[in-house]
Amino acid sequence: MVKRWGFYLPLGVQGRGRGSRAVLKLLQKGALVHDASYYLPIQLEGPQDCILSVLRMVLIPSPPVVAQMSSESLFHKVLQGACHQNAMLYHMDSSASHFVAPVLYMWQRMTSERVEWEISSVRKLWIWIHAAAFHEGCNALRIACEKQQKSADGVTVSCIQQEGRIARLDIMGNKASEVMSKILCPVTISNKTIDGHEVPEAQQQFNMDQIQKFPPGAILQLRVKDPRLLSSEVNSEFNEVGIDLVSSDTCKPSDNMELWDSQCNLDPPVPENILCREKNRKRLNSLFLEPMSQEVPGGRQQDVFSQSCPVVLLKHGHQTTFLGWSIILPLSWVKTFWLSLVSRGGHAIGLRERRWVAWKNHVPCFPHDFPDTEGYRSLLTDEGTLLDASAQLRPHRAQPQKTPMPPPWDCVVAYLHHICRNAVKFEFLTLDMYVPRTNMTLKEHVERMDSKDMISAGDVEVTDGGGEKETLCLVRVFVRPFKEGLFEDGSLVCAPCADDLPGWNSRSEKEVEKSQEKWQLQLKQSSVESYFMQLESGKWALQVPEDPADLKTFRWPIGFITTGAVHACNDRVSVGFCDIRILAALRRQQYLQTEIKRPEIFVLVRNMKSAAYRRAIATIVLEQQQEDLLFL
Which stretches make up the POPLD domain (predicted)? Predict the structure, then answer.
């Protein structure tokens, strides 16, 4: 267990059969359960047009105007409350570098199918945000709501924190639906049409085959029975207990109003001791024995418990190989559903295993794969402090080499100065980092770059050049080793020189073996230790060697690996971030030298404590897809 972001969270389980190989195998052939209650909702409540105005201030991509939405568009379904949507939350009226966090937002389901009729009606919206950026996200939304109030003649949009009221459980894997069917027995389901699928008003069995037909991102609202009562004999005569129980077993439409009402008190489940006492009473009755008279503890007679629970099911909007659901439920019911999920076949995982799942499906994991956020810098700073503290406990000779955490991204600017201005020493006060996550935002940012050299990256023209203001435009890349190597978190992605490129061009087996024997590039051990130097201020600076012999083996960094390849897995791809201008320059150079146009870019990767450079191939994610909004 580790304490992060105000929560005590499971980091992972150690031991044989609990490593990455076993977890990823369970993802393919079983079900993984993760308590994602550290994702907290913020509720916006007000007129629909005012809420949409607030979202346009802070979200990318922002929802369009209602009049421009077609009935078949995704935004129309999201506005109806039939689907949820991923987006990136930014500070209002600020530069693109002021990124807060990725979010998931969902509307309360509408009673009317025509969106334009509900423009002035009061609507409710949930924005789910990670605890590492919760307070920063709340401030950004509050400022946007205040500005909207000034421009709307006093019409307010309430920004309400739902922290400590509702929670979320994630179920992932190919057998996620099978595990859910064992614990979910709906009392009733909303009788609305979700993406063309008609759902009956009442049903006693949860038809998982039916909900599998729903598209990714679909929302289902249910009221389900207490999972502890499904296989228990207590369920038949439980109402005989002398406690004021709220039974909702009558079949009536459920819109889960109590979940959306921030002022409503959510009834907790029946305590375990009452269930055990009732179970014991029934067993004694079956043996024709009279149970011992037990008085109900004082103060419990006035308590109100419930045998059913309102839940909202979210189908993950990921790739087809990444099957999973999220269960949104009252916080008081988390323990009940968690124990039922684990006892019915779900394998509990922590933060480390969840990151493995994200890596397996090529989905970024917050905050590790979001270097332009404060949550990323705060997390890696805390981890670096813990590593330094543990290293100080060892003898001086046994202390490991100290490495910068978080990585010094400003060293990437050094290469821009080197190739654009032929300068080795550089000085700047601040560094703005920006990561475009849609093709449109990438194109808009690239068009603002002042450049002379231009190349085509998909349908986007990428420029190379520098300005007076130091702005680092990073793009997410997949880095695969060319022949050998396994890249770790924090590894450097470096730019190869012209003499290094023949190492990637061998085709025949003899040439491959010959190139494998000849191609070796290593730093001196002294150069590895002095590659980065920690200043008195605590920051790390790149040290360019002055010796010509050392300069021949020096390669300029252009980015870093944020998520290394998981061990014991055939797929050795790593996730990194590199400057788009340098990648553009490298691609053009490699086009001219190899005379072969290919989407991949040849790069070198070196683990932070290693002296050997490894050949690798980098692929820009936004060249393979239109947007990069999915996250875990």
Answer: 324-399
